């Protein structure tokens, strides 16, 4: 009892030489199918951010503003159109965050200079001569004091730099004045001792030049000494009322959630690269190299475990087209359970009048029977049920029918035939007729048989179905049991692939085992998670 050799189907999948372009849907499919992983990692990131917000106290920041002024010889003279260029604010910002300012803060407030440098921030508005000192601390008074001290330390450092520069210039002028004064004294002595009138006039002229130079040096020194070296003023001191929380705490939660989701997506891609699943018909064709017999979907309601009955009937038509009775069809899977699909195919094949035997050697007979009964109840039309009522006999009228129904029933005799003993030795004994328990046109139904339409479905083991014309074998997972492949050697095989669950490596290994055993599968059926 073997099947007719099926004609080969041409695979309608893409050729191995052509490459399929990756779309945005393909990129989003992996995170969507690994949504649990992405959600779990995102929740871990959110919980980490929430723990940081709740356990780590918020940093408070205080700000002090310093107006920087250029050092000029005459403070009452306008600086002109380029007043904002009189001070290089980049240099001033570097001095404000320099080592000397940080060292003075560490000496006055106490603490590690590295922590002070990290807590201190100096902002320079574009196009202005303003320095904003912002200091972060755990307590408000510490932030206020440190911000004000940082501003005062900057002004003190800058003033000492200007004073040192002025002292150097004054020292240079003093040295020049001393040298010129010595020249003046020497010329004065020579002029006083000169006897020649021409020589005396030359010395007097040279002495006048020395006196003029000395006057200019004294005037320049006076201007340098009068320079105001004040580097600026604190225009806004830090106060407790102006202390704000450093940063926005709710943004930490958003950052934790988004960061966790990003890490989860990366982990999803890494997991998908090592654990590839069949996601679509194209993946099934590429992994197995088999033609598609049909796809079995689930209803729109996501929580429903049953499959769409119409899809199973289409798969049954495809299988019936490929096999001829007597047929032995094994539904093989890699690691999944094809019980629901086996029961659905049995109902779809039996509804047209076939005698289907469902074989199972793994103790799933009761599950198969329950699934067949459930699928039978959802059949759109039962061919065994008459659609038109029986016609009345010819010549009967409604009145006659009513009269017949109104005739009272005859009482049975208290002495039925054969109840009294007869004294006649030649009398014939009349035996009562026993009525049949079933109609004449009905057929005998065995206890292990379920009537479906004009056909039937029977259940049993593989050995019990040896004499039946159409046998569906509900094979156990091939990764742990080889009986499915062994049965397929005696007939045909239908590879059942469960979307988002069947691994591509397992599917390739199953197809290789079937072909190595000499089995040419009819094709594969792509199902969804759930009952089928």
Short description:
The chain has 15 helices and 13 strands.
How would you describe this protein?
This protein is an alpha/beta fold. Helix content is 45%, strand content 13%. It has helices at 24-33, 35-55, 89-96, 99-109, 113-119, 140-193, 197-225, 249-274, 281-288, 309-322, 339-350, 365-377, 398-406, 483-488, 504-516; strands at 60-68, 120-123, 130-137, 232-236, 244-245, 292-296, 327-332, 355-359, 449-452, 455-460, 470-474, 492-498, 523-527. The strands form 2 sheets. It has an 8-stranded mixed sheet with strand order 6-13-12-7-11-8-10-9, sandwiched between helices. Strands 1, 2, 3, 4 and 5 form a 5-stranded antiparallel sheet that branches. Helix 2 (35-55) packs antiparallel against helix 8 and helix 10 (309-322) crosses helix 11 (339-350). Residues 1-17, 384-390, 396-419 and 429-442 have low confidence and may be disordered.
Alpha plus pi helix count: 15
| Biggest beta sheet attributes | 8 strands, mixed
Helix content percent band: 40-55%
| Uncertain segments | 1-17, 384-390, 396-419, 429-442
Measured distance between first and last alpha carbons: 29 Å
If strands are numbered along the chain, what order do they take across the biggest sheet? Answer: 6-13-12-7-11-8-10-9
Overall average residue pLDDT:
78
Task: List how many beta strands DSSP finds.
Answer: 13
- The gyration radius over C-alpha positions equals 52 Å
Q: Can you write the helix and strand succession as a string?
A: HHEHHHEEHHEEHHEHEHEHHEEEHEHE
What overall form do the CA principal axes indicate?
rod-shaped
Structural class: alpha/beta
Beta-strand percentage range: 5-15%
């Amino acid at each position: 009892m073997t099947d007719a050799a099926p004609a080969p189907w041409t695979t309608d999948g893409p050729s191995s030489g052509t490459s399929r372009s990756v779309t945005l849907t393909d990129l989003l499919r992996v995170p969507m199918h690994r949504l649990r992983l992405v959600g779990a990692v995102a929740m871990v990131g959110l919980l980490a951010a929430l723990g940081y917000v709740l356990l780590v106290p918020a940093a408070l920041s205080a700000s002090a503003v310093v107006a920087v002024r250029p050092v000029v010889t005459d403070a009452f003279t306008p600086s002109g159109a380029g007043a904002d260029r009189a001070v290089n604010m980049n240099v001033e910002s570097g001095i404000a965050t320099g080592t000397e300012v940080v060292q003075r803060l560490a000496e006055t407030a106490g603490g590690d200079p590295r922590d002070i440098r990290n807590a201190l921030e100096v902002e320079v508005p574009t196009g202005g001569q303003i320095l904003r000192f912002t200091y972060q601390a755990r307590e408000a008074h510490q932030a206020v004091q440190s911000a004000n001290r940082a501003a005062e330390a900057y002004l003190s450092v800058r003033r000492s730099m200007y004073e040192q520069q002025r002292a150097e210039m004054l020292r240079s002028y003093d040295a020049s004045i001393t040298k010129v004064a010595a020249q003046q004294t020497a010329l004065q002595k020579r002029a006083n001792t000169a006897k020649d009138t021409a020589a005396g006039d030359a010395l007097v002229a040279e002495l006048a030049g020395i006196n003029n130079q000395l006057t200019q040096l004294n005037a320049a020194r006076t201007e340098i000494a009068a320079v105001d070296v004040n580097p600026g003023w604190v225009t806004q001191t830090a106060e407790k009322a102006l202390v704000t929380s450093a940063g926005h705490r709710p943004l930490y939660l958003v950052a934790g959630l988004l960061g966790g989701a990003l890490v989860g997506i990366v982990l999803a891609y890494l997991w998908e690269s090592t654990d590839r699943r069949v996601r679509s018909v194209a993946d099934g064709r590429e992994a197995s190299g088999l033609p598609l017999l049909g796809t079995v979907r689930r209803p729109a309601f996501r929580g429903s475990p049953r499959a769409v009955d119409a899809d199973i009937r289409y798969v049954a038509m495809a299988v019936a087209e490929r096999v001829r009775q007597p047929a032995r069809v094994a539904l093989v899977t890699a690691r999944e359970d094809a019980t629901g699909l086996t029961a659905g195919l049995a109902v779809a094949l039996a509804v047209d009048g076939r005698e289907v035997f469902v074989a199972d050697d793994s103790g799933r007979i009761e599950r198969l029977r329950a699934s067949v009964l459930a699928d039978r109840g959802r059949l759109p039309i039962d061919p065994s049920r008459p659609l038109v009522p029986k016609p009345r006999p010819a010549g009967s009228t409604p009145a006659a029918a009513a009269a017949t129904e109104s005739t009272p029933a005859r009482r049975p005799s208290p002495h039925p035939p054969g109840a009294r003993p007869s004294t006649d030795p030649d009398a014939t004994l009349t035996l009562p007729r026993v009525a049949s328990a079933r109609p004449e046109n009905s057929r005998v139904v065995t206890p292990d048989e379920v009537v479906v339409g004009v056909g039937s479905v029977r259940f049993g083991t593989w050995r019990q179905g040896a004499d039946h014309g159409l046998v569906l074998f509900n094979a156990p997972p091939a990764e742990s049991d080889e009986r499915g492949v062994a049965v397929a050697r005696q007939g045909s095989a239908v590879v059942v692939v469960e979307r988002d669950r069947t691994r591509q490596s397992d599917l390739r290994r199953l197809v290789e085992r079937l072909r190595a055993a000499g089995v040419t599968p009819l094709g594969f059926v792509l199902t969804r998670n759930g009952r089928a």
